[in-house]
Amino acid sequence: MTEHRVKFAALFDAEVRPHNERFRAAAAVTRGEDVLDVGCGTGESTREAARASVTGTVLGVDVSEAAIATASERGEATFAVADAQTHPFPAARFDVALSRFGSMFFPDPPAAFSNIARALRPGGRVVLLVWQERDRNEWYSVLHDALAPGTTPPPAGSHFSLGNRERTRALLEGAGFTGVEFTEVREPVCYGPDTATAVEFTLGLKDAKELLAGRDEDAAVDRLRTAFTAHETPDGVFLGSKAWIVTALSRA
Predict the structure, then answer these.
(1) Contact indicator for 186, 238 with CB cutoff of 8 Å
(2) Is 153 helix (H, G, I), strand (E, B) or coil?
(3) pTM of this prediction?
(4) N or C: which terminus of the chain has fewer CB atoms within 10 Å of its end residue's CB?
(5) Residues 6 or more apart whose Cβ sits within 8 Å of residue 230
(6) How many angstroms separate the CA atoms of 128 and 34, rounded?
């Protein structure tokens, strides 16, 4: 997945462009703020935070060495390979902690969010962009119906782990945050400029690989191509999605 993430870095960013605009506005990074970007991938959200902060310190972290290498090559901020669950961030160091579709993947969410809370100054804010629950996202149902029609979907993956508001609220409050709020984002996701690219992009995704396991791949890919053709527009292949922007404050 790491090589796929780097190969399609531009498409991963383009996929959620409307979501990112809403996320950036919610983060509202201002001049001089110190920012921690968790699960930064190849660093688009980190670089945007650095441009807004101007004089502040902006650090992007991710567990993927390949993604961080690509982010570091592009510059504009500081990047490091680090696990947000265990990394010894300086206490009360940052004004803002961001995570754009990265926080859903923590193996130990209580540990990760508690560690992030410790890294924030009193009253500092956390801003997350996460998928809502799986059955509310058309993009998953399109993949499932094309690649494994007539089957029961496997258990929802970790990328839907923060989709339930009450569960996520309890998790953040337990980690030391207060004032947890959720804002719905209903925007299409772009799977590529055309059907051929969308198919190639999708076949490298974990969800697609799980759905394809043990099936006739050629037939499944044909169905996927047909499904994407139905969603292709002059501007690209778009599927419906629902996400949350989650905001909270560290306890003073």
Answers:
(1) no
(2) coil
(3) 0.92
(4) C
(5) none
(6) 16
